[in-house]
Amino acid sequence: MSQSHRIAGGQIDRGVALRFSFDGKSYTGHPGDTLASALLANGVRLMGRSFKYHRPRGPISAGSEEPNALVELRSGARQEPNTRATVAELFDGLEARSQNRWPSLAFDALAINDRLNSFFTAGFYYKTFMWPAAFWEKVYEPIIRRAAGLGSLSRLEDPDEYDKGFLHCDLLVIGAGPAGLMAALTAGRAGARVILADEDFRMGGRLNAETGEVGGRPGADWAADVVAELAGLPNVRLMARTTVAGAFDHGIFGAVERVSDHLPAPLPGKPRQTLWRIYARRSLLAGGATERPIAFENNDRPGVMLAGALRAYANRWGVAAGDRVVVFTNNEDGLRTATDLQAKGVSVVAVVDSRRGGPLLPGLRHLQGAEVVDSAGRLGLSSVTVRMADGRTEVIPCTALGVSGGWNPNVNIHSHHRSRPVWAEGIAAFAPGADGPAGLAVAGAAAGRLSTHGALLGGQAEALAALGDLGIPATAGDLPKAEDAPVSITPKWYVQGGKGRAWIDQQNDVTVKDVKLAHQENFTSVEHLKRYTTLGMATDQGKTGNVIGLAVMAELTGKPIPETGTTIYRPPYTPVAMGALAGRSRGKEFKPFRLTPSHKWAAEQGAVFVEVGMWLRTQWLPRAGETTWRQSVDREVLATRKSVGICDVTTLGKIDIQGTDAGTFLDRVYANTFSTLAVGKCRYGLMLREDGMVFDDGTTARLAPEEYVMTTTTANAVTVFRHLEFCRQCLWPDLDVQLISTTEAWAQFSVAGPNARRLLEKVVDQDISDAAFPYMGAGNITVCGGLRGRLFRISFSGELAYEIAVPTRYGDALIRKLVEAGEEFGAVVYGTEALGVMRVEKGHVAGNELNGQSSALNMGLGKMVSKKKDSIGMPLSQREGMVAEGGYRLVGVKPVNPADALSAGSHFLPEGAAPVLANDGGWLTSMVWSPHLGHCIALGYLKGGDQKIGTRMRAVNFMNKTDVAVEIVSPHFIDPEGERLRG
Amino acid sequence: MLINHPILGPRDAQEFVYLGDANLLHRPDGLAEGAIAAFHDYAYQRGNPAGEHRELWYHEQGDRSWLVVTRNTVTHEILKVELARDVARREGRSR
Amino acid sequence: MANLKPLTALGHDAPEVLSIGAVRISERFDVALASVAARRGKAGDLASAAQGIGLPLPAPATHQAGDPWSAFWVAPEMWFVEAPFASHEDIAARLKAALGDTTSVTEQTDAWVRFDIAAPDLAPLFERLSNLDLARAPVGFASRTVIEHVGTYLVKRAAGEVVLYGPRSSAASLLHVLEVTAKSLL
Amino acid sequence: MRYSGFRVIAEALIGHRGWKPIWRDPTPQAEYDYIIIGGGGHGLATAYYLAKEFRQARIAVLEKGYLGGGNVGRNTTIIRSNYLLDGNEPFYEFSLKLWEGLEQDFNYNAMVSQRGIINLIHTDAQRDAFTRRGNAMVLNGADAEMLSRDQVRAMYPFLNFDNARFPIKGAIMQRRGGTVRHDAVAWGYARGADSRGVDLIQNCEVMGMRIENGRIRGVETSRGFIGAKKVGVAVAGSSSRVMGMAGMRLPIESHVLQAFVSEGLKPLIDGVMTFGAGHFYVSQSDKGGLVFGGDIDGYNSYAQRGNLPVIEDVAEGGMALMPMLGRARLLRTWGGIMDMSMDGSPIIDRTGIEGLYFNGGWCYGGFKATPASGWCFAHLLATDTPHATATAYRFDRFLKGLMIDEKGQGATPNLH
User: Fold this and answer.
1) Residue of A nearest to D130 (CA)
2) What value does the mean pLDDT take over residues A650-675?
3) Cβ of D401 and A876 within 8 Å?
4) B95 has a chain A CB within 8 A of its CB
5) Is B27 on the interface with D (CB under 8 A)?
6) Chain A: residue nearest D125 by CA?
7) Which of C169, C170, C185 to mutate to test the interface with A (most CBs of A within 10 A)?
8) Which of A54, C81, C98, D138 could form a disulfide with A111, with the two C-beta atoms 3.0–4.6 Å apart?
9) Does domain D117-177+253-341 have CATH number 3.30.9.10?
10) Is residue C2 very low, low, confident or very high in pLDDT (cuts 50, 70, 90)?
11) Pairwise CA distance, residues B21 & D299, whole Å
12) pLDDT tens sequence across A929-969
């Protein structure tokens, strides 16, 4: 396919042809093209459909502000909806499809909406679809939802990788146009650490799209030279294809670098995009300005463009968007499009200039005081109707119309901290206001200085100012000469008269009529205007349309534009791929793994693992022939209670607490007392939150007069440590206490069961007879002939049990040694399921009971809260509502009929009572099958439970439709007297 | 946000854990008369100013210092950062 | 000595060594580690006791190498002390004996996995891993930092050499991040 | 004027000349029986029900900015009543029932859409907790059911079932949960209140309260003093600021919550979904945007804007759950100020000052609560007794130890 609309010049490599396809049709373009420029070069103007009316649309811009030319880029799992053709860099083999149309772009069935437009006015849906009531969800909404959206996702996993990083600089320059380049050059030459970021793949900004000279050379050449010099400076980092998306607090910026989007696929190992968090001591917004159109009837046809874009396609990409061009402008800049195109030999048939007076353009039909009032052409522009100064109208055939309503400084980043832009009369646009982000300056067109000279001057001055703040000496180099044309503009927002629709927000199909209706219905504040009409809520966030919309509203309300104000600018500046924000944290890498010392051994045994926080723990270890998890767990439990079982308990938090005040400290952070604990002993500790609820529990041992080691639950290891540091530093800063976590330093195994001691005697070097190492004993030992370790005689299972610890690197060897030594006793290794079964059989509380909503009293541990001393949580645990009779109490539960299954989460109801809130007695917190007892058992919180032992209730579960008669019993199902412990 | 750590200099706020109003330094005496009322005020009532706020941050992914940060809750500007331990001592906390 | 065979944090008999392009990542298994914290009001006594055994107690955010003792600052009045594992497996006991009541000492050797990472220019790797300004950090800089949700200690031992201590249980996850990031630089 | 499909057609034929202003712009009168401070969802609903259900008159709503500019204009539009605790569940179920009849009640299509909400389950403990919750919901007359992993997969086959760090093990579902067009809620209530004679006064900031010997007399505003017999405060986000004018300290902190919307996409997600192993929840609007959110930033703030870490955290959750999401683009972020209370539950109560009433502490449950909050606050204002479903929302619950702590986090607002 020939590039029929390609003309001379431009920054493209004509030596290389790139093949690409749009809606299945193949075309060619060149390196340096965007998808839009290449399509226009091939004479394709129609690229999309609008959201509501499905109007045929082509690009109006040559940049990231594009509302119309949105396509689905790539295919398969890489399909990328809503990609702006105007910024999609062309590569060989690029595939693109139009979207939001059916069956085809040229013929779209839903274009019927356009014929029905008189019904589909702003907010019409708020006033209808209400009758009959059921129809909204069943009929109307499904239809609306089916029509919703623009492009589509593939539903397949994104195959590309994303990365994140962190950069530091003295000066971040946002935008590499004349202002940004001059600033970077000034700061770079001064040796400052500079980052220059630009969303475009070619730095230079408007200089690449203009013919004006800088320093006596074409602006684009000057830009290329500056970029080359900057590239040679080690203190300067050039970041093309990088969009600074947001300004956050204290000089932190979020920027997305499109590392691979200009390639068919990322190179091996390379990310598609990288999210950079940039820490900038000072920053400069040099993001340029965005041209805005003038609204007139049918101003949305393919071929109607922004004048600056029309010019950019000709100058930068060597493309004539049309062969007969009309220009419609209200300001001086629009005339440049006419003169540039004329110089390139494109036929400019008329220049429609809404201003009166002033010099006429030579050699052109320059119609002053005239306006374009309408356009024609079904799928593309074929003519415009012009109303002359004298009121007479003329139809002028043309294939492209360049419209310029003036330029809006890109204030977005400067307003990300909610600084309101201020109205600048001279350019009839909003410019950056006061109180922008601290340390952020603005230069060039972004600051409302629309001339090239103004940009160069501003960029240099702001760079010098920033370096001055930082105490980095810098000198102002000579400023290259460049045009300093005045902005001559006579504001015109929309063309009066006419019955038809004049578009303001092209993607969302918001027209002047809609704004008028909003006003008529008293939606007059800008926020109401936006929310009622959806003005500015499309993928372009109103970059070209918003100001026109509020100008129209200002006119209707009779308020000046500044008083009418703008809506709020929020990140991101342009839409950002979710993948970039997520980086590598996805799939199995969503969060890091924590592996226990016995993990390798357990994996060899074919253990089943379970996520416990970040940890992977052994859930159970199936043996040959076991087909269900219950078989494995029952075996582990029975073997442990009968003989001995081994379990990796390394995940429990361990905190080393030393200092002369360690005991006092523990007395204050635990509800019970520890200062009286004898050296070589351990004790169960109950820790409360200041609000009196139970925070955590565990055993704490005293290894030396001034050294304790505290055990926390696996889940709370981090929060308990944080809390202890708070108590130590903030509440009692003069206590002599030092803390450090030792959770991972020790591999710790529970050895439980009647034969626990006999097994350990084969491993531990010292005498651990009951006399030498009694119940709740703790101390340093050596293992297997000299390896230093620790032994604690504590039990979670209710059996004679120990926890033995060795340095983690020996954990794997120890589990193997314990298993080997246990063979003669038929020892098993058990996982978290068996652990859970045994602790419920014993009536110990764990995660499901330690739910942050329960007090010591609720758990039946009220007596542990000493009132004799002040401790965290003690005072508030005494509030009337928390000590009242009849509150929740921990109880045991067993089915009246042993064959009945129980389920955790079931609620207690009295026998025969109706299932209503008033009868709700509480709930089953934990349920297990007790192989020992041969039926299900559970723990639960029951209102007044301490008074209900021995009574019957129902455990009702509407989720699995069960209703079981249960008996309320003591939570201690096994060995309530604790004889086994002391055995 | 960046918190200018008195020992380590500017550190990303993401390394810290936020607790809240620095009045939490002033834990009442749990054995005193009217302790429940005092603790109710201490644990639950907040000034919650729109403006300067003295608040506790914990450098969990750093040196484990608790800091008292004076920050404007409207602009997020940070005006002062001190070690909580120093503030606590200065304001009468000891043992 | 005990007839128990130790494993590295990555679960192998011998330390892992990887070379990816210019980046070399070596797991270290031969360094003993302990925390040393001054008891309240005993910072001075600790300093002199430390001097007695040639134990450096460097300033905040720094590491100081020595023989046999090296150390880096981790918190106010708290340091991590390094020594050769072969000669100092009982590092905590030795330090406690030497420093006595001035100090709280805690064994840390096996709480951590240590990776030594070397490359002519480490900036491209670490600007993708950590928010620390490593390029500008002086040699001897030591700090805690988060790498892909994993809290680590980072020590800049030389211009092209960084020591990373990560939680032992997450050794594999940490190495994975180092690996894929290094590969993305190829 | 009454809205209907016929009216829309009729107006279309006459060029929409007949549409009337949705509300008046009255000038404040010297005194009212009731002044509601705050023209957000809760304030407007309160005024609406005061006039309609409690037949009260001489009512004004004072709004410092524009109507519906509070969190009702800045949220993720979710409605549900899947709460756990006795103090909450009846109230939120009452609210959900009001949502179900809302459009017909105020003749405005707020697009109440009950497409279902699921909370994903990743651990056995979560399943136990959700079972307890589901049963509590049923006991309170709400609907709840547990879904198996396969049932979830049938609904959303594109979730990460096969390569997840925290595998999906099922979900709890409330089919009556869903979404509502949030702005329309404010506009519908405002229109309904205005048409019943309520004065909606925009750009009228309350600067002070006139209190004489323990009784409220009226409020000083940017438009002068306005007298009132009773004043109801419904300014969640700014509660401490406004109640400070009456000399009150509250068990509330103001925090920023960010929310997000993607570019418009063809339909993917019918209902609402929350990820149980990270901070991420999502639904899809009728325009096609994925509306999602996560955790609050975590520090006290009145800035109405947040920072990058939370945006990344939410995106990580989204990608972990829906690996296709990488190629969707985040279009806009926004931040609203939450009244984070000390137990995560709201307050609708009298104050120590006679005639001054408070409604706040909504954390991020505020939007779904709008109808019931308005109704219950109107009930309290009109009858001086709490509505049956809001009896627990008292100031003194903290002194008495009767917290309503759904998450079990205690007196740490940023964890609720």
Assistant:
1) A905
2) 98
3) yes
4) yes
5) no
6) A848
7) C169
8) A54
9) yes
10) low
11) 10
12) 999 999 999 999 999 999 999 999 999 999 999 999 999 99
User: Residue A130: which pLDDT band, with cuts at 50, 70 and 90?
Assistant: confident
**Residue A599 CB contacts under 8 Å (≥ 6 apart), including other chains:** A609, A616, C11
Please, which chains are in contact with D (at least 3 CB pairs closer than 8 A)?
A: A, B
Fold classified for A1-153: Ubiquitin-like (UB roll) (3.10.20)
**Which residue on chain B is closest to C76 by alpha carbon?**
B63
B15, B40, B54, B64, best to mutate vs chain A, most A CBs in 10 Å: B64
Which pLDDT band, with edges at 50, 70 and 90, does D218 fall under? very high
Given this structure, which CATH class describes domain B2-90? alpha beta
B–C: how many Cβ contacts below 8 A? 29
In order of A484, B52, D204, the CA distances from D239 in angstroms are 53, 17, 17
pLDDT attached to residue A161: 97
pLDDT band at A132 (very low <50, low <70, confident <90, very high): confident
pLDDT at C1 over 80: no
Which CATH number goes with the domain that contains C177?
3.30.1360.120
- pLDDT computed for residue A5 by the predictor: 97
The CATH topology of domain A493-559 is: Arc Repressor Mutant, subunit A (1.10.10)
Nearest to B63 among C76, C131, C151 (CB): C76
CB contact under 8 A, C39 and A166: no
d(CA D218, nearest CA chain A) in Å: 27
Domain A886-983 top-level CATH class? mainly beta
CB distance D315–A581 less than 8 Å? yes
Q: Which of C59, C75, C109 is the last residue of a domain?
A: C109
Residue B2: closest CA among chain C residues belongs to which residue? Answer: C131
pLDDT score recorded for residue A471: 98
Q: What percent of chain A has pLDDT over 90?
A: 96
- As a whole-number percent, the residues of chain A with pLDDT over 70 amount to 100
Cα separation of D235 and D70, whole Å?
Answer: 8
CB-based contact, A588 to chain B, within 8 Å: no
Q: Residue A505 is which amino acid?
A: D
Residue pairs between chains B and D whose CB atoms are closer than 8 Å: 67
Instruction: State residue A315's pLDDT score.
Output: 98
The CATH fold of domain D5-81+84-107+182-250+343-415: FAD/NAD(P)-binding domain (3.50.50)
Cross-chain residue pair C41–A166, CB shorter than 8 Å: no
Cα–Cα distance, A866 to A959 (Å, whole number) = 41
Helix (H, G, I), strand (E, B), or coil: what is residue A845?
coil
**ipTM of the complex in this document:** 0.98
* D101, two tokens: 């009849």
Q: Give A112's pLDDT tier (boundaries 50, 70, 90).
A: very high
Structural domain of C153: 17-29+111-184
Q: Which of A578, C171, A17 has its CA nearest to residue D312?
A: A578
Q: C162: closest CA among C131, C108, C126, C133?
A: C126
List of chain B residues whose C-beta atoms are within 8 Å of the C-beta of residue D411:
43-44
HEC letters along A124-173: HHHCCCCCCCCHHHHHHHHHHHHHCCCECCCCCCCCCCEEEEEEEEEEEE
- CA D35, CA D32: separation in Å to the nearest integer? 6
Which of C53, C77, C109 is the endpoint of a domain? C109
**Cα separation, A872 vs A870, whole angstroms:** 7
